[in-house]
Write a structure and sequence with these properties.
Blueprint: E1 9-14, E2 17-22, H1 33-47, E3 54-59, E4 63-65, H2 70-78, H3 93-99, E5 104-108, E6 111-113, H4 115-122, E7 125-129, E8 133-135, H5 143-151, E9 155-156, H6 157-162, E10 168-170, H7 175-187, H8 191-203, H9 208-223, H10 226-236
Parallel strand pairs: 2-3, 3-5, 4-6, 5-7, 6-8, 7-10
Antiparallel strand pairs: 1-2, 8-9
GO molecular function, one term: catalytic activity
Pfam family, one: ECH_1
Protein name: 3-hydroxypropionyl-coenzyme A dehydratase
C-alpha cells in the first residue's frame, strides 16, 4: 500500500484506527481549498483500506476547525485568489464523511465553527474537550443548531452536551485518549456489521420498507461471513473473538 504524504493535514494509523489531524493551527484549521482537497484525498485513501475500521478527525493546536478561511473568501471577492484545486469542494466534506464505510469520531479539541461545525455534525460520534466551542452561521433543521444559526452566539462544550450535539465531554488532556479508546472498542467489533450499521443509518430514505430491505441485505452478508463463525466459536469457547472483516 502506497501511503500519501500531506502538507496541511496528517494521517496516523494505529492498529485498525486512522487519525486525521487538520494542520493549520495558526488559522485554527480553517478550510482553504488546498486543505479541502487534501481532506477529500485522505478520506478516499482511508475508505479503500480494509484494515482501517474507525476514523478519528481532530485539529492541531487550539482549534478543531474554524470553518471556511475568511481571508480566502475575501481574496475570492476581490478577484485575487489563486485558482482552487479541481475536485469536490468544502460543501462536499459532510457527505463524504458520511459516505466512507468506516465510522468517524470527531475529537473536538477547540473552536468548531461554520463548515467546521458541519464536519463535526457529519461525523458519526462527537467527543468534545472542555475547551471546545461551537458556533454556526447557517440554518439547520435541528432546533439547537437553528438557535445557534439565528443568534450567532458561541456555545461551550457543556451546552453542546446538554443539547445532544456531542456524545461526551472530557478534560482537554484526555480528549485523544478518550477518542482512541472508543475507536478501539468499535474496531474490536465485527467490521462487516459495523460498516453495515453506518450504511443503514446514513443511506436510508425514511421509508421503513426500504430500511428493512437494506437491513435484510446486510444481515445476509454478515450471516455467511467468517466473522460470524468466529463469533459463535469464541462464545462457545469462552474467549474474546478475533474478527478479520471477512
Amino acid at each position: 500500500m502506497v501511503v500519501r504524504s500531506y502538507e496541511l493535514l496528517s494521517v496516523e494509523r494505529t492498529g485498525h484506527v486512522a487519525t486525521i489531524t487538520l494542520n493549520r493551527p495558526e488559522k485554527l484549521n480553517a478550510l482553504n481549498p488546498p486543505l479541502v482537497a487534501e481532506f477529500h484525498a485522505a478520506l478516499d485513501e482511508i475508505a479503500s483500506e480494509e484494515d482501517i475500521r474507525v476514523v478519528i478527525v481532530t485539529g492541531a493546536g487550539r482549534g478543531f476547525c474554524s470553518g471556511a478561511d475568511v481571508n480566502r473568501q475575501l481574496e475570492s471577492l476581490q478577484g485575487t485568489a489563486d485558482p482552487a484545486p479541481e475536485g469536490p469542494g468544502i460543501t462536499a466534506l459532510a457527505p463524504h464523511l458520511q459516505r466512507i464505510p468506516q465510522p468517524v469520531i470527531a475529537a473536538i479539541n477547540g473552536v468548531s465553527a461554520g463548515a467546521g461545525f458541519g464536519v463535526a455534525l457529519a461525523s458519526d460520534i462527537r467527543i468534545a474537550s472542555e475547551a471546545a466551542r461551537f458556533s454556526c452561521i447557517f440554518a439547520a433543521r435541528q432546533g439547537a443548531a437553528m438557535e445557534m444559526a439565528l443568534t450567532g452566539s458561541i456555545y461551550d462544550a457543556q451546552w453542546a452536551l446538554e443539547k445532544g450535539l456531542v456524545n461526551k465531554v472530557v478534560p482537554a488532556d484526555r480528549l485523544l485518549d478518550a477518542a482512541m479508546e472508543l475507536a478501539q472498542t468499535i474496531a474490536s467489533n465485527p467490521p462487516i456489521c459495523v460498516r453495515s450499521i453506518k450504511q443503514l443509518v446514513h443511506e436510508h430514505d425514511g421509508d421503513i420498507e426500504n430500511v428493512l430491505h437494506l437491513e435484510s441485505a446486510a444481515n445476509a452478508s454478515a450471516y455467511c461471513s467468517e466473522d460470524r463463525l468466529e463469533a459463535v466459536k469464541s462464545f462457545l469457547e469462552k474467549r474474546e473473538p478475533v474478527y478479520k472483516g471477512r
